[in-house]
Amino acid sequence: MLPSAADVVVIGGGIAGCSTAWEIAKRGGNVVLLEKGRIGGEQSSRAWGFVRQQGRDPAELPMMIAGNRIWQELQAELGEDIEWVQAGNLKIAYDDQRLEELRGWLPIAREFKLDTELLTPAQIRDLIPGIIGRIAGGMFTPSDGHAEPSKATAAIGRAAERAGAQVFTYCAAEAIEVSGGHVSGVVTEKGTIQTPVVVCAAGGWSKHLARGVGLSLPQITVRNTVAESTAAPPITPICVWAPDVAFRQRPGGTFYLAGGGTSDYDITVESFRNTRLFAANYVKNRKMFHLRVGADLAKDVLRKLPGSESREHPFAHTVDVEPEPNLETAWSSLKGLKRMFPMLGDVGMKRVFAGMIDSTPDALPVIGGVDGPRGFFFATGFSGHGFALGPIVGKVMSELILDGRTDFDLRPLRFSRFAEGDMAKAKKMV
Ligand SMILES: Cc1cc2nc3c(=O)[nH]c(=O)nc-3n(C[C@H](O)[C@H](O)[C@H](O)COP(=O)(O)OP(=O)(O)OC[C@H]3O[C@@H](n4cnc5c(N)ncnc54)[C@H](O)[C@@H]3O)c2cc1C
Q1: How remote is the CA of residue 389 from the centroid of ligand 1, in Å?
Q2: Considering 29, 66, 321, 345, which has the largest number of Cβ atoms within 10 A of its Cβ?
Q3: Ligand 1, residues 22, 42, 61, 364: which to mutate, most atoms within 8 A of Cβ?
Q4: Residue 329 in contact with residue 353, Cβ under 8 Å?
Q5: How far, in Å, from the CA of 118 to the mean position of ligand 1?
Q6: pLDDT score of 296
Q7: What CATH fold (topology level) applies to the domain 8-420?
Q8: What pLDDT was estimated at residue 129?
């Protein structure tokens, strides 16, 4: 039974929402978590699983470093196997120009006292025996790690419930009620909950929920394809990210593979909002995106037709959707892996899937409250970094809500930066 009231309602059962509900419940807060589908059904179970500090923007790095420490204890605290491995993250450069770009990030690593170093091709061959190919060097952070997204998010959801959070799946939040400039309730498909505090942790759907209370959140989604190979003997426990293939080997021997960071961007009606805000970062990273015009645009137009079921219930209507994987990318990433490790000649493809990554114009999340309505908080816009950040975001959100403050500097992550034109400078992703 949906309660009639709660102190806090968290919308979205991805890693950000589950961690927030868990941290609030651990401290005795009366919190409800609403998820329109299943826990972790969207991005948070489809991520590559890299828990990576290296290459991050300084604005999110303090949280990423604190988050890494939580990850080191998380498996024990959850009491469940989430395939946590702390063996480092290696970014490989095939040419000197890319190596120089990686070198450019080292002063940030030093400033934040990270264990990041630049490796020579010989050092990389020592670190990962059997690797071949033209390698100019790489950037390595031994304290980085990886975990299994499909296990971790569900486990955090279960922990939230054990700690006292009331979790409702297949229960979409349809609207947020406001009275006198303050959040007063959440209308769901199963009834209304009175609440003074709402956390919008709805991944790529956050912009739609926010629009309902007059907030314009610039947010797009891109489609990223992941392949899982058949099992192979152990090659390396390190997460590796090369220009044509990114991979990590799971404890069972299969590899998660992706196309080195390239994603498909399906043009939808939404694409024509905030184009100016996204332009600078797009231009810097355009090689990472393949623009697609097709079914998604047509579906989006249909969704907006008056009287359509999807217009009436836009959130409940999008449950359990499987984004279409890009098979070309999947096969080329498997080829890329075998080029690096010819001894994996027999390894095949076990499955392919895709996930929709939500992103803001400056590729930084939006975390914290807003000028109005009071009681409304964002924990969204993670721009491909949210799996690693999820657990620390939960902690930060619980501090903001229960203590009214946090030690982290959230100014660069505030919602108002977009309207103020004070976003982080466009940068090439490292
Ligand atoms: C293929 C892929 C690879 C990635 N690799 C990495 C990686 O290696 N490392 C990393 O750190 N990050 C990675 N990411 C990014 C990371 O997965 C996301 O940043 C993170 O999972 C975002 O978590 P979230 O909780 O904000 O969103 P989500 O996981 O998308 O969760 C939001 C939830 O809100 C629910 N929801 C939406 N609207 C409503 C509503 N109205 N009512 C109720 N529920 C609602 C949705 O159903 C969804 O379950 C990757 C992402 C993808 C897709």
Answers
A1: 11
A2: 29
A3: 42
A4: no
A5: 31
A6: 80
A7: FAD/NAD(P)-binding domain (3.50.50)
A8: 95
pLDDT of residue 162: 98
Low-confidence stretches of the chain (pLDDT < 50) are: none
Q: What is the pLDDT of residue 368?
A: 98
pLDDT (0 to 100) of residue 286 = 82
> Alpha carbon 149 to chain centroid distance?
10
pLDDT of amino acid 28: 98
Q: Does residue 137 contact residue 121 with C-beta atoms inside 8 Å?
A: yes
For ligand 1, residues with CB inside 6 Å are 11-17, 34-37, 41-44, 46-50, 172-173, 201-203, 205, 209, 224, 226, 315, 355, 357, 380, 382, 384-388
How far is 337 from 347, CA to CA, in rounded Å? 10
User: Residue 68 C-alpha to ligand 1 middle, in angstroms?
Assistant: 18
Tell me: the pLDDT tens digits for 272-293?
888 888 888 888 888 888 888 8
Q: What atom in ligand 1 is closest to the CA of residue 355?
A: 53
User: Hey, where are the domains in the chain?
Assistant: 8-420
For residue 273, the tally of other CB atoms under 10 A from its CB is: 16
pTM for the predicted model, two decimal places: 0.96
Residue 372: DSSP 8-state = S
Q: What is the reported pLDDT for 426? A: 78
Report the side by side order of strands in the sheet with 182-188: 173-179, 182-188, 191-194
